[in-house]
Amino acid sequence: MRVTVAGSVVVLAVLVLFLFRPAPIGDLDARACDLLGQLAGPGHPSAQVAIVEIDDKSLERVGRWPWPRSTVGKLSEEILEAGASTVALDMMFAQDDRADDAALAQEVAGKPVVAGYALKFDGENTGSTDCRLPPLPLAFVTSGDSGAPPFFQATGVVCNVPPVAASIAGSGFLNAAPDHDGILRHVPVIAEYGNRQYPSLALEAVEVFRHVATTELDVSRGGAWRLHLDHLDDPLEPKSVLRLRFRGSRHQFPCISAGDILSGHAPQDLLRNKIAVVGGSAAGMESPVVTPADSLLPAVELQATAIDNLLRGDSFYRPEQGRLWELALAALAGWLAAVLLRRSGFLWGALATLVLIVAVWAFCSLLLAASGALYSPLPATIGLACSLPVITLVHYFHEKERADLAQQQLLQTLRHSRQILEESEHRYRRLVENVNDAIIMDDVDGKLVFANRRFREWFGLKEGDDANLVLENYVAPEWRAEIRERHNRRMRGEPAADHFEFEGIRSDGTRIWIEALVTTLEENGKITGSQAALRDTTERKRMEAQYLQSQKMESVGRLAGGVAHDFNNLLTVINGYSGMLLGQFDPGDRRHRYAEEIQRAGERAADLTQNLLTFSRKQKVNVRPLDLNALVAEAKKMFERVIGEDIHLTTRLSTDLGLVVADPGQLHQVLMNLVVNARDAMPNGGAVTIETKTVIEGPNTKHFAYLGVSDTGTGLGDDVKQHLFEPFFTTKDQGKGTGLGLATVYGIVQQCGGRIEVTSVLGKGTTFQIYLPCTASSSADLAKPVQITPAVGGRETLLLVEDQDAVREFTATMLETFGYRVLRASNGPEAITTAEKHPGAIDLLVTDIILPVMDGRVLAEKLRGIHPEAKVLYISGYSDERIGRGGAFDSDFELLQKPFTPEALGERVRKILNEDQQRRAKSK
What we know:
The protein is of the alpha/beta class. It folds into six domains: 2-26 and 320-402, no CATH class; 44-135 and 152-211 and 244-312, no CATH class; 429-536, PAS domain (Beta-Lactamase); 546-613; 624-781, Histidine kinase-like ATPase, C-terminal domain (Heat Shock Protein 90); 797-923, Rossmann fold (3-Layer(aba) Sandwich).
């Protein structure tokens, strides 16, 4: 209670201090807000503002300041011709120069040029000129509170000369609003003079740039708090002040030298569609301002920052009720510190207080970065910093009293220690007897002096049978010498591993893996034996072996997929050109026979590559809801002709089997591989059984469709099962098998989201068990056959992008043979350049998916920005995770798999173009 009261007193003192806010506290608070703004980050410029600097180089080229009005007019004209949307002249024309005023007025007349003027305040001796500045057409939205809104007040105007004022698109005042410490954090957006409102230079530049039709200001008793420019909203602080979010130190905006523009050396497109802020940055030309972001920042960058803040709505502001929320946060943090310090020691309490301080700063920083709302963390920080020593001191005296009381209680506790010790020994023995691990103790000779119930269960011992037994009796023969040597070294006091594994043998001859944690027992400094905790890790060893096998299969799969992808590019060229040669030679020509042999070899290589892709789960598949029973019934008719008359094929099909999502051709391939392997395992005949049923697994009752293929053949040994699904592993004689059959089966099942298991006994047969997840689709969802569009040519223009030179030339040759006009490119940037230079339309983009520099899909998106009418056909050696999850594709995703024939290429291109033409005809 005392700790809580002390913490509350400290918090109340801090709250009172911040309510009255003496000058030092105000300065410290301003610095804290500056630091918070730096933590929140400077934000990113809008890319709509650029600075034209009248720097030292400009003065050297053009002459000393001030420049003639005609030079300023010429500069404005050059900036607009360079593409700028608006020119904001961060300068004043307070003195008449009638010889040059007309020239400047003529240059800026009717153009989006904004110039600055200054406001005069009480106590200033600045002269004034004849001003006829139109007030700001401003609509006020009030909250219903009475009282005039307190605007930023001025007592006079020092404006530009009348001819210039009448010619420019708008004028705005240039005054900044530094705090009393000389640091500029705010800019007044709207000033009031003579009961009229006038905009700042930044606001006027944004209105001209955005062609603002309506300007509204939300006001309340506390002041103006939000500015609306059509659909652009900017939060403000009272007195119509915009708290700037600085972009950093100098040159955060694109900067161009005024001298470069006047001499025609300005960079191209740097000013296009931007507000160009023109002002001085040369040394001695104008006094720089002090900001939280930079100790010396030119005024022109200040104006650019204000314009950029207004454009993005990216400024800071302190809400009207923000100080009350800051005090509430300080009270909450102080209360939490009191609770934490009361319940923990000094070190933990200090750490918790530090964490709270960091959390307050992080919260305020994140809130500022996300919304622009500025809440000072200083009250909470000072409250926490003051709470720590006071609460810690009170807590110390409180804990001392508790320690004295605890000492008295300790004396009473010692009287019961013997009774507690006896009960503890009894509980310890029960724990040791009932623990899931085996615990044993032996003497220096290795004889067991104690073994708990778990050890006796493992090795079939009864209570009392462990007397004079040795652990070696229950260790596998190959491990006994090592176990004995470890024990002897430990008994001699020599270093020995205290954590190791070995194999044990049960009374029935079965082996178990045991993990041992051994400690040495000492009595009066003499080693008397050892104690060991033994854990059965047989199941973990089995799972580790399965995991290592899975990792190995995954690595081999990735390698196979990569090899097959590169091989497909080669086969596209080999098979394509061999097909071209076949068409050029007569069937009786021996060259026709040579080309035919090349094509046959290429087709066999393509089949082998497809198996590799299937194993690596990276080939394109046509998945759909599938009735597994119908597939098995259809396949059985063909299998009966394949396996021979001496093998009896039977099926057991479940009547309530759900649908699975898979490629029917792939599942047919799975059945074919398994049935052919079963036939080869029964050279003297036998029986093959194909079974389907529904299996429910797991706590979430997940439904699987079970597909089993069993045979009565020779069976498989454990050494064979370990490598069964590896590619190129085979038990058949050389030349009778590729070793890809079961690897392909494994890849297909994995790609369908299922799993495959194998059970086999030597001499009794083998069963392959496949589990595929069921889908919620019904029989009505079964896909209908797809109509194929005949392959015909055309006269359209195609853009072909392929990084492999041989594949690109072959594909282009085929498309040109069909009559198409083909534009070639080897990568994305080259394709974009070709498309930009092409004067006509591009009807179809044919691109590889995986390209250097730019991905095929990114290329397609960029091309549509240039030729929105272009359709897209992707080609690829395989489709990885970036193309489709699990090998499935969206309905509008057109993909042609490598290697492809000229006919397949022509057919797919014509199909896409025809569908596009039909769609356009319907839209008309």
